[in-house]
Amino acid sequence: MIPETLRLNGFAGIRAGLGRDELALDFAQLAGDAQLVALSGPNGAGKTTVMDNLQPYRLLPSRASSLSPAGFSFYEHLVLPQSVKELVWRHQGARYRSTLVFRMNGRRKTEAYLHVEENAQWRPMKLADGTVSDGRVETYDACVEALLGNPETFFTSVFAAQNRRPLSSYTAGEIKELMVEFLGLARIRQTGEKASAVARLLRTTLDERRRALGGFGDADQRIAALEHALARSTQELNRITQCKAAARAEVERAHATVVQLGAERDANRAVEEHRAAVNTRLADAREALAKALSTLAHDREREQARVAQLAAELREAGELAERRRTALAARRKE
What is residue 7's three-state secondary structure? Predict the structure, then answer.
């Protein structure tokens, strides 16, 4: 976007700085072949007013609290009952003229026009969706944003206004919105939504046409379709019959397997019963053995006690016999 001419009428900054109600600048003539143009002057001379108006959006970026036309009012910066801003600018090889008329005679009213130069004539801007810049601020904003994008993106990436907010202070959501605008994802999303709406309408129309054609179908086609369906049904019946026979054979094999498993189960049951009987007998035998061992140990203790008693009696008898033999030996000696 390159500004060519600017005309301001009734702006407070121009009157306060230059003491005049109207200012017209031809930047193409002033700049010539220069690559850089600078505005110089003392504070309050109106430099910021000129710089803020070198863009077609309906706001003054250095004085706006938010970068949206809905959050800014020109009337606080105007001094005449009718003020005008006219900006001629160039963008992507085409020339445009923005005209903003502010009226404050009784009630406030704003008219906004965007014209494009075609064959050396100014014609109202018209978008592809049929929107025409007809003086309403809504259509004007739509046309400007269709050419330059939304104001947040424009004043962040293209137009550096005074006291511009630094990019480092942007939140992640704001950076994401800027990236969506830079990459054109919003337009792609809108195109997708329009395509989905068209597809829904076409699908509805197609269903209606199909129902209408179905009601007026040819009898031969219906018969052919029925014959084809009958042939397919016959094939399907044959296939189902074969599947049924195979399933029946599988059921018989499964039944034989069940019988065999039942016999094995009965045999295993008999073995388990025999094993249980043997275990019972083994338990009885172990119990009898334990009782016999207990009795044997008791008898052994008793026999050992009796042997000890007999040994004691034998010793006493031996001692008695020894005493008798000693006495007899003494008597015999006498």
Answer: strand
